[in-house]
Amino acid sequence: LVEEVLDRQPDTIRSFLLHTSVLDRLTGGLCDAVTLGTNGRATLEQLDRSNLFLVALDDRRHWYRYHHLFADVLHARLIDEDPDLIDELHRRASNWYSANGEPAKAIDHAMAGHNADEAARLIELAAPAMRQSRQEAALGRWLEALPDGLFTNRPVLAMGLIGARMATGNTTGVEPLLQLVEESVHRTDLSPIVFDTDMFEHLPAQLLIQRAGLALLAGDLNSASAHAVDALELVEPDDHLRRGSATALLALAHWAAGDLDTAIHRYTEAINELTTAGHLADMLGCSLALADIQIAQGKLTDAQRTFDSGLRWTAEHPGLRGAADIHAGLSEVLIERNDLDAAAHHLETSNELGESAGLPQHAYRWRVTMARLQRAWGNVNGALELIDEAAPLYNTDFSPPVRPVGAIRARVQLALGELDAALRWVAERGLTTDDELSYIREYEHITLARVLIARHAAVPDSHELDDATRLLERLLVAAEHGGRTGSVIEVQILLASAYDARGDTAAAIAALDDA
Fold this sequence. Notes:
Blueprint: H1 2-7, H2 11-19, H3 28-35, H4 40-49, E1 54-56, E2 64-66, H5 68-81, H6 86-99, H7 103-112, H8 116-132, H9 136-145, H10 155-166, H11 174-186, H12 197-201, H13 203-217, H14 221-234, H15 240-257, H16 260-277, H17 280-296, H18 300-316, H19 323-336, H20 340-353, H21 362-376, H22 380-390, H23 405-415, H24 419-429, H25 442-458, H26 462-481, H27 485-501, H28 505-514
Antiparallel strand pairs: 1-2
Helix pairs in contact: 3-4, 3-6, 6-7, 7-8, 8-9, 9-10, 10-11, 10-13, 11-13, 13-14, 13-15, 14-15, 15-16, 16-17, 17-18, 17-19, 18-19, 19-20, 19-21, 20-21, 21-22, 22-23, 23-24, 23-25, 24-25, 25-26, 25-27, 26-27, 27-28
């Protein structure tokens, strides 16, 4: 039927239909640009009146699309009859979208039309706004689709690819790209292709920022801090974006090292800089990290204040990326305070806002937090299901993995009485009570102590219980020294349990009093 309808059309209408089949949305001006005609709007209105497989996309009937089946037939016919014209049609569409302020659609058509040079130009110019709104995923897809050779003499474009990869913890090919950019900065005999001149001027500082991020991902906290400090010394006081970025990396390095007080100070500075720069999604990302640290310190009132501030920003800027994360984060504080109904409300709001309002870790974070809520409600099986859903969604980013999903799962398994599963996790992670302690592994080591206490309860072994007790005593000293009140309280409660299992009631009571 669709083929018959197409074949019955006059040549002018048939040509219009075929040429505009490269478009997923239709409006008069765009159709004129693609068909090189002047009556696109009138033709669309005629097709609309004829009920010719056209769907209006707005009440004003300004934008349309073809019915999907009809669009497929049109495009297949275009490929058969005039395949050499397709790239040119996409080029025209790309030019129209670019001139009409829709860079994303312009890039899509440039890519579809195999115009890599034009796509590269458009991507470079669109990248700052996309980074500001935290659209790294879309930016990364475009950049990865470009030919590798295109980056050789485009240092700003290469820096964009570096940032897109590292935003998700992917360091593949980053070092050669950094060296390529460094060569463009330091050599005067090169003539790089540049469209974003502001970024090009700031490449020296941006290189240091990315070097700091790369060192952070590699666990080299000293180098990360050194590069970030060098970047701060290089950028001007009014370059709030790069000052905020470098300061946030310093905060991350201190967080990973367990120096939470300094991390809080640096995050506060970064939030102020990024707010001034207008990078509100990045500011919300730093706010999440700040609140996580405040929770670790047991400062629930401070954490709630941080989240409340984030909520005010999201209310003033509807659709702001990070809004969903702020609601999910606030629910964590409410769970800690046993206000489970309010926590459920914020998790539901977070879910309703959807992935478009979430930062890269949102899908993971939401499920982990919902698992905590399910467990608080007594639905431990439901909690385990959510943890299993969360695990493959975790994207390595710059934030230190202070609560690895494997350790979270092991704790839920213990609550379900699945001791063997928790012991397998201990073996897989290679954890022992004699390990050198670090903040990054603190949650895992506390979980190890929980597993050992549970195994002692199932199969009494005084030697194993003694090992768990010594580990907890070491963890207590480290947590107290680092000002991590949340860990201190948890360890003291576990110590009370261990002392009680050993028959030392006085020590158990003293530990509970301290908690």
